[in-house]
Amino acid sequence: MKITIIGAGNMGSAIARGLAQGNLIKAKDITVSNPSNGKLETLKTAFPDIVTTNDNEKAVENADIVILAVKPWLVAKVVPSLKLKCSQIFVSLAAGITTEQLTEYVNPRIPIARMIPNTAIAELSSMTLISTRDMTKEQEQLLLNIFNEMGMTLIIDESKMAAATALTSCGIAYVLKYVQAAMQAGIEMGITQKESMTMVAQSLEGAAKILLNNNTHPSIEIDKVTTPGGLTIKGINELEHNGFTSAIIKAIKASL
Predict the structure, then answer these.
(1) Which of 6, 151, 160, 178 has the most CB atoms within 10 Å of its CB?
(2) Where in the chain is the domain with CATH 3.40.50.720?
(3) Per-residue pLDDT reduced to its tens digit, 96-152
């Protein structure tokens, strides 16, 4: 199984790093193409077996899966020049470009997937969203198997992609913003920046595992730590008095 990534920007490089750390795809079977060499050299230093090139057409020649990781406004320029074959799976990361629009640039018979990971894919912890067009169940399962090695992957209806992207791809920034704010509070109370970050990040990981491993609801887990007259309920109420829930909802809806 050979995978080619077109574009070595933040997300393209993150996917290459994540793939190289998994068990299904060998680093030597990953090719990354980019017009300039700086990011390719950085990637090559970390994973010497990854193949790098400046030639997009050559990069996709023998690929089983081609992942497009370029900015949306470059899609119309880059994709037609790839000369993709119907035997290949074409995966696009271009935000806002639908699978229907992608058929304008490739043979309509080519299996197409639209994919939205988040930057945690480099740490094998992404929430990756996939919607597909003209793809068999076996091909969908192949993508799930590959990207589940880099976190959790869901195949969703394309009509839900924008909303789901706000929750996951944009949402990771909102989570990090909470961590940053909590760190600032910790520093003000006399805890070092590094210690604050470690404490908050570990608490965040613990909260995520509680939800994912127990299929529970946040309100149930919050109730467990908000004892009558306790410290936690005072903090929770202060968050609500200052519009915390409303701010989160508005931020996510603004990302549509």
Answers:
(1) 6
(2) 3-159
(3) 999 999 999 999 899 999 999 998 988 899 999 999 999 999 999 999 999 999 999
pTM, two decimal places:
0.89
Query: Where in the sequence of the chain do the CATH 1.10.3730.10 domains occur?
Result: 171-254
d(CA 4, CA 144): 17
The pLDDT confidence band at residue 38, using thresholds 50, 70 and 90, is: very high
Neighbours of 9 (CB within 10 A): 14
Domain 171-254: give its CATH code. Answer: 1.10.3730.10
Cα 247 from chain centroid?
23
Q: How many CB atoms lie within 10 A of CB 235?
A: 11
- Tens of pLDDT, residues 41-89: 999 999 999 999 999 999 999 999 999 999 999 999 999 999 999 999 9
Distance separating alpha carbons of residues 168 and 116, to the nearest angstrom: 9
d(CA 219, CA 235): 15
Give the DSSP letter of residue 112: E
Whole-angstrom distance, CA of residue 108 vs CA of residue 179: 44
Contact between 173 and 145 under an 8 Å Cβ cutoff? The reply is no
Sign of CA dihedral 248, 154, 127, 135: negative
- Rounded Cα–Cα distance for residues 198 and 71 (Å): 33
Measured in degrees and rounded to the nearest 5, phi and psi for residue 7 equal: 115, 125
- Between strands 112-116 and 30-33, the pairing is unpaired
Q: What is the pLDDT of residues 176-189, one digit of tens each?
A: 999 999 999 999 99
